[in-house]
Design brief:
Mean pLDDT of chain B: 94
Mean pLDDT of chain A: 94
Oligomer: heterodimer
Radius of gyration of chain A: 13 Å
Distance between the termini of chain B: 35 Å
Low-confidence stretches of chain B: none
Radius of gyration of chain B: 13 Å
Strand content of chain A: over 45%
Number of strands of chain A: 11
Number of helices of chain A: 0
Largest sheet of chain A: 6 strands, mixed
Chain lengths: 110, 112
């Protein structure tokens, strides 16, 4: 079993929809959780990060961590065509090396 | 502008040849990383370096080598021992532990 599991999709939603992206993990030592967005043939860019269980909000994005269930989510409100990308969850226990999910491909249609 | 520069963007290698991918950062970050990305596989860690003159193997280090002689530079050599080197290679850096990882734009290596 991989340490980080993420459904690769693809996920297709209409513009304005709420998007829910999820990852599960097996290593209870993970304590730093991140979401990255990657456009085709580009390097990933950080969207959100959090250390603790609960919700963290930044504009249209909300990151949610449930350590008891080993489950993290990213919600995107009022989705836009420009949100079409691959979303990667990542987590770390050492603070250095990141363990990535496979990424979920999202398409937001006008 | 501060950032991470990877070169070249595209690289072609003949089987049996070694090739070196360049990664330079001007963010004054202590730690640097190399990840490999294959379709449908996410990013996998090859090597990372927390400080100059020190580096650790990641999950898939076999067939790769690195050096960290300068804080700004972390080149990756893909050796002929790497059985399936065709992939997208990403370099990253962080200021320290539990800080944001900044990524370069990647090098796409193809073995011909």
């Amino acid at each position: 079993q991989k340490e980080v599991e993420q459904d690769p999709g693809p996920l297709s939603v209409p513009e304005g929809a709420i998007v829910s992206l999820n990852c599960t993990y097996s290593n209870s030592a993970f304590q730093y959780f991140m979401w990255y967005r990657q456009y085709s043939r580009k390097g990933p860019e950080l969207l959100m990060y959090t250390y603790s269980s609960g919700n963290k909000e930044d504009g249209r994005f909300t990151a949610q961590v449930d350590k008891s269930s080993k489950y993290i989510s990213l919600f995107i409100r009022d989705s836009q065509p420009s949100d079409s990308a691959t979303y990667l969850c990542a987590m770390s226990h050492s603070g250095y090396a990141l363990n990535f999910g496979k990424g979920t491909s999202l398409l937001v249609t006008p | 502008d501060g950032g991470i520069t990877q070169s070249p963007k595209y690289l072609f290698r003949k089987e049996g040849q070694n090739v070196t991918l360049s990664c330079e950062q001007n963010l004054n970050h202590d730690a640097m990383y190399w990840y490999r990305q294959d379709p449908g596989q996410g990013l996998r860690l090859i090597y990372y370096s927390q400080i100059v003159n020190d580096f650790q193997k990641g999950d898939i280090a076999e067939g790769y080598s690195v050096s960290r002689e300068k804080k700004e530079s972390f080149p990756l050599t893909v050796t002929s021992a790497q059985k399936n080197p065709t992939a997208f290679y990403l370099c990253a850096s962080t200021m320290g532990p539990f800080t944001e990882a900044f990524f370069g734009q990647g090098t796409r290596l193809t073995v011909v």
